[in-house]
Amino acid sequence: MMKHDGHRRNDEARRAQGHFEECEGIDLDPAAGVTVGSLISAVQQGRIDPKKNVLLNITGGGYKRVQEMFDCIQVPVGLATNNTTNKDEIARFVSDWVNAHA
Q1: Which parts of 1-102 fold into alpha helices (H)?
Q2: Cβ atoms within 10 Å of 41's Cβ, excluding its own
Q3: What DSSP character marks residue 61?
Q4: Are 29 and 61 in contact (CB under 8 A)?
Q5: Whole-angstrom distance, CA of residue 22 vs CA of residue 8
Q6: Is the sign of the CA dihedral 62, 63, 66, 68 positive or negative?
């Protein structure tokens, strides 16, 4: 059975994340992994010359390092919403929070 294209791309992104972590010493956010995977794919497909310089701004990652260096605590959910949540309910929650904390 052939893998769905989305599964293949997820696998590529995970491999790219692992490769980046091996080379740079920092783990990537999944979205950044997709970006690195896309760059690798573009080079492999000849759409980007491998001898050219490419600047890739990685903005998400380092979660493993944070967990190793700091004691992390989970913050309880203040307000859970869904597509039926009334905007007045959200506004009331925000207003109450601001009044309690400001």
Answers
A1: 5-24, 30-44, 63-69, 87-101
A2: 15
A3: B
A4: yes
A5: 21
A6: negative
- Token code pair at residue 91: 């506004």
Q: pLDDT-based confidence at 4, cuts 50/70/90?
A: low
**Res 2 pLDDT > 60:** no
pLDDT, greater one: 93 or 59: 93
CA dihedral 27, 25, 22, 42 (to 10 degrees): 70
Token pair listed for 11? 């696998």
Q: How many CA atoms lie within 13 A of 17 on its CB side?
A: 19
Q: Spell out the residues 6+ positions from residue 13 whose beta carbon is closer than 8 angstroms to its own.
A: 30, 33, 34, 36, 37
Q: Is 2 helix (H, G, I), strand (E, B) or coil?
A: coil
